[in-house]
Structures are given as structure tokens and as C-alpha cells.
Amino acid sequence: MAKQHSNEYFEGFVSGMESACKAAEYLEDLIEHYDPAKLDEQVEEIHRIEHEADINKHMLMQRLAKEFITPIEREDIILLLQQIDNVTDFIEDVVRKMFMYNVQAVRSEAVEFASIIKQCCYESRDALKELPGFQKSSQRLLEAIVKVNEFEEAGDRLYCAAMRRLYCENAEPLERITWTKTFDWMEACCDACEDVMESVEMVVMKNS
């Protein structure tokens, strides 16, 4: 029974990142087929995905509060659950910002950014799937961590290029403000995945 409960935490990590993957897929599709008239209903849909992630996190936190023996340190479980939840929250915030600022057309970099965010989420999910076997030094786990870092760096480069183009061209002041905020949040999505991977690396190091 204890082993089963231990697995539920690892499965919960993966489930949380699956929600982030769904949110990232939704964001990518929204941006590729952008229609400002649909933003109000799209905000509701991505909030539904985020709410499912919250339920998953709260259920595991409730279980954690009742258990004395855990597969990894309690503080690490709490940190990972929060960081994984942050990924979905930040993706939702991108859509909310686009709705709040009444974005009428997307910039080309946003399409590429959405793809990078999705890849960060995919690789983070794959890494978390390997976490139960971390004591066996899973090569797939290490590869996924490296790939997340690579995608995050690609996001940083894209962010820099997108912001430079935004401020070098004759964009309207309101458009500059809007896309500065939007690109900030898109970069934060990639950073959030990197945070998860840094915590995973710390768990591996502490328990090897």
C-alpha cells in the first residue's frame, strides 16, 4: 500500500504536466488560428484546463498532509507540485493578457514562441515520467532535462529578437505595451518548465 501511495505522487507530477501540455497545445492552436472574436470563450476553456490542474494539485497536497512516509522529501513534493502548477497558470495568463489587452492580430514571433512552450512542456512531462526510476540514472530523464534547457534558451533568444523588432520598428505605443507584456508571459512559461527541471535535478542529486 505504501508503494502504491508513493507512486501516486509521481503519477500526480505527470498528470499536472499533462495539464500543462494540454494548455500549451491549446495556446498554440489559438495563436495559429487567431480570432479575437473567440477570445472570451477561449479564456474560459483554458481556465477549465487550469482548474483541472488545480484539483490534481490540491488532492495530492491533501494526501501529503495525512502521510508520514513519502518517496522523496515532503518539501520537494510541495515544491514540484507548485512549480508544475505554475506552468499551466502562466500559459493561462498568456491567453488572459491577450484578452485583457484586446489583441487584434498576433505577431509572427508569437507562433514560434507557442511551439517552443509546447516542446518545453512535452520534454518536462517525459522527464517526470522517468522520475520514479531516478535511482537507476535514467538516460531518458537526463536527455529530457537537457532538451528543456535547450528549448528554454531558444525561448530566450526568440524573446530578445522579438522585443528588439518590436522596439525598432514603428509600432504603435499601445501595441508595444501589449506585446511587451505578452512576450514577458510567454518567456515566463519556458522559465517555469526550466524551474521544474532544476527541482527534478535537485531531487535526483539528494536521493542518489
Q: Outline of this structure?
A:
The chain is mainly α and 208 residues long.
- Return the structural class: mainly alpha
Any idea what the CATH architecture is? Up-down Bundle
Q: How can the largest sheet be summarized? A: none
Number of helices: 6
CATH fold naming: Methane Monooxygenase Hydroxylase, Chain G, domain 1
Evaluate the radius of gyration.
18 Å
Poorly predicted parts: none
Plain-language structure description:
The two termini are 24 Å apart. 84% of the residues lie in helices and 0% in strands. It has 208 residues and is an all-alpha fold. The chain has one domain: Phosphate transport system protein phou homolog 2, domain 2 (Methane Monooxygenase Hydroxylase, Chain G, domain 1, Up-down Bundle).
